[in-house]
Design a protein that fits this description.
By secondary structure, the chain is mainly alpha-helical. The chain has one domain (2-143). The chain is 72% helix and 0% strand. The radius of gyration is 17 Å and the shape is elongated. The two termini are 25 Å apart.
């Protein structure tokens, strides 16, 4: 676990940048539909899971389950950030990209309890999706050149 967290430092930096960016877009009143595709934590994490798994396979010799575990860790961390950002949005009583109805797959605004339930579902589903992305990345990692060590 500690090796995976050490390896994930670049991901954590990018996650922080994207998270601050999403908060900033909300504070600047950029319409959700206009800004959400520019800085998506879910999409960034899926790409990170794919790339990390590919590169760790080829250059660090990770086996499939190691790569999947790393990808799931990245997915879990990203979802925890989304969960906590949604919690903060409701606790502070502000409209953000984290409690926007579309972000919660809803037509209209929902209450705190329903939103957090949705986020728990996303935490589980997206962690699994990142594991799948990691498996696909690991499979694609076979086409990368061997390490020059």
């Amino acid at each position: 676990m500690s090796e995976n967290l050490k390896l994930a430092r670049l991901y954590l930096l990018i996650l922080a940048i994207v998270t601050v960016g999403r908060w900033s877009l909300g504070f600047r009143n950029v319409p959700y539909a206009q800004g959400t595709d520019k800085l998506s934590i879910v999409m960034m994490t899926l790409f990170a899971s794919t790339f990390y798994a590919a590169f760790t396979r080829r250059w660090l010799g990770y086996r499939l389950l190691q790569a999947v575990a790393l990808a799931m860790l990245l997915g879990l961390v990203g979802q925890v950030v989304i969960f906590l950002s949604t919690l903060a949005s409701y606790a502070l009583g502000i409209e953000t990209y984290f409690n926007h109805p579309t972000a919660l797959n809803q037509e209209v605004p929902v209450g705190f309890a329903q939103a957090m339930g949705i986020r728990v579902g996303g935490l589980v589903a997206n962690t699994i999706l990142n594991g799948i992305a990691g498996a696909l990345g690991w499979a694609m990692g076979g086409v990368l050149p061997a390490s020059s060590k």
